[in-house]
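cron nightly-structures :: item 1 of 1
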Amino acid sequence: MPQIQMETVLFVCFAIAVIFLIARLAVSPAQVMLKLLLNSVLAVVLLCVVGILGETWGIRLPINPMTILLIAILGLPGLLLVSVLYMLMI
């Protein structure tokens, strides 16, 4: 019966840990991109709702890639930031 050396066991454990780490890093960016995509869709819907409701108060926010990305990343504070910045520039 062959004996297993300690170096071999440590190498196999290290190799499994490296493979697990690489797999974890490969999955993580996909989750981040999916979350950003979902938040972007939600930002467009939120901008449309604010646009429809804002007609009565004269508030009109532009729907462009920059505002969508800002609201997708920051959420509700991003919507408030875009609204305030747009009001200050008018």
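cron nightly-structures :: done
The chain has three helices and no strands.
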